């Protein structure tokens, strides 16, 4: 009877769980878990939930059969090495299900069968840890010098008072450097009917400039779990500013947006810690009506982190790609990052190096590369932003406010979003890949003498700093109007080539490998015509290169890939701030530089380090590649799905030991704390290659190497962060009941879902006497070995975090962030309001001692800037 009642309750919960509005979270009283339920495996969701002793909360965003559950937190007596109760329950069930589970035992109790059904119904279980995503904050700014032009305004009847200062729309001083939208407006395109979602820190829908274009239905606050994305923290102006660039109305307030008749929704995630469940839901929020997700944030840009999205987030992104926008795919636009001065590169960020992102870097109003904008082979295009004395002028938080201080790659991404919104008005049928093709095809070259431009195999030019060039609205929309849709996506993945019998276990224990000596290591794989045909693969778009490298100093490692046509993609250049000793445990790089190239032939990877073997050294264990492109036969296209377990190559995996300590949370600190206060005024450059020659250090324009290196490793145990990740894989056991592989994610300084190298087998490896390794894939077509990771792998490199923790106490500019982990490093900066009288001016950090002359004086930030993002509610 009681049971029945529970069941009814569960049904009710389930029904309400399907409602679209997420329930409020209470991480301080409950532990949350995400699970994936396989209804075909024989146990109902209700059974699974009961057997784990948890309560069903709701479905995970838009992911089918993924559920958020919770359980009350144990009393405060809980010590950091008590086992996780839910995990323990699952382990007990697993043990019970597998005991005596060998093929010769024919008699089994009904109960064991139920248990086995239960265990195999639970494909995935992960504790949710709120984490802090970091805004792509512009470094602080300079008031721009006066410039004005009223011509276009008069012609088009634009009365917005700040329009003449919006040089990214009409640039009087350097007419070739602007987004070039006016001709598109004159074609009658203004973004009507297109919705962009600002996944950010809120959106001020009361703003006179935005309220007409605000889409409340597709907005949500995932920080405070409220329907509207109200900016609440003192510096929650980032999302509003980005929204203004896209959809500020043509009215009498501030300026105009690029797609000023389009709509903007606000999804608030950056104003406090957020767990993967909510980030996943945010990236699919309203994904049938929303076309474009504007994302100006990411892991820290400190030149030390190597991080990407977790499993659920990757799934959400692929879900958006496969099912969003009626199946045409959500458009994800990501800012490339502001960490170039820290030696950071966007290929160390799993969001920007995802094939699903349009990754946008910045150029300034003179068309120069601003020193903050991160280079890498995943950059697709650039858009205009701050530098050389000017910033982006856009709507600000408040009833009728305007800022002249927006910038960084944060402001480049929304400019791209606005252009894509205009294009989608003209061509709503464009898929996510058509949009990327149009970027590649229509981008406008700038600074032709810049040595960073290199020819690709198709005759185009590519630059790590500029991608394929500037996203120019007129060129983009003109190309879009006559664009023939591409065929569906095809892909294939190569088996891993192993060097020196290199292996890596699920716990990221490396063994074997080849020592990286003087001159580095090269390894070659051959792609054949047959492999393409077998995989229904016609033309190449993105490539992924996944590497397993064990190294004492990750930042010393440099990696490049050379295509059969001799085109080189630099994947990793020295990062002097990155002292992590966790290596590259299956990290996946991405390059768009080979777009359109014929992939048949030999691909050679070169791995080198700084060759100081006594101090720092490592081994190269293996690598593989994934090729993405279009199909030969569209009717045989298959949609990509994120594999549950990405290290499926070993024939047999022993379950790893049970975790002995529960999850704790960690704080992702601000990345941009080292940036000087001059991102808007510092002159850009167009004379330096982004990546100097092998062995030389630093990216372009690195003004001052950070001093904060070299002493962190001893702190690496301060923060523990673990999650558990179970995969029950259908397998050989009796009755078709699969038994599981589970592994334990995010253990200190290591990351979980890196692929494991094969333990033996099927690659013919031939070591050459020259010290090179080469492997020719004999199996040819083994395409669906699910090694692939949709998004570059995640590194929860706690070393980095520890480093930051340490830094906070050391560097004055980091001090405010202690215990907040969020706003303090946000090098965003308010200019005095131009529209509504003087507003308070904040700085997020104490002014650097070498304060630039002429800077307006700025008040220090309030001591406790973050309303909801305070401490980790969850920390134990
Ligand atoms: C999405 O669009 C459809 C059709 O235009 C509309 O009926 C629906 O209400 C919209 N949903 C949201 C959440 O805006
Ligand atoms: C790799 O393993 C094979 C078989 O186990 C062995 O014959 C070979 O010598 C090993 N090679 C290296 C470089 O360790
Ligand atoms: C490709 O690599 C294989 C193995 O290293 C080699 O035998 C072959 O000659 C190479 N082909 C070309 C075109 O370089
Ligand atoms: C590699 O570096 C470590 C210190 O990081 C050192 O102890 C070891 O001797 C080095 N190995 C070689 C072969 O130089």
From TrEMBL:
PROSITE patterns: P_HOMO_B, SUBTILASE, SUBTILASE_HIS, SUBTILASE_SER. It comes from Lyophyllum shimeji (Hon-shimeji). One of its GO terms (biological process) is peptide pheromone maturation. It is found in: Membrane. Residues 661-672, 856-865 have a biased composition (Low complexity). Belongs to the peptidase S8 family. Furin subfamily. PANTHER family: NEUROENDOCRINE CONVERTASE 1, PROPROTEIN CONVERTASE SUBTILISIN/KEXIN-RELATED. GO terms for molecular function: serine-type endopeptidase activity. Its main location: membrane. Residues 129-152, 655-702, 792-876 are annotated as: Disordered. Keywords: Calcium, Glycoprotein, Hydrolase, Membrane, Protease, Serine protease, Signal, Transmembrane, Transmembrane helix, Zymogen. CDD domains: Peptidases_S8_Protein_convertases_Kexins_Furin-like (cd04059). The chain crosses the membrane at residues 724-744. Residues 486-633 form the P/Homo B domain. Residues 1-19 form the signal peptide. Residues 842-854 have a biased composition (Basic and acidic residues). This is Kex protein.
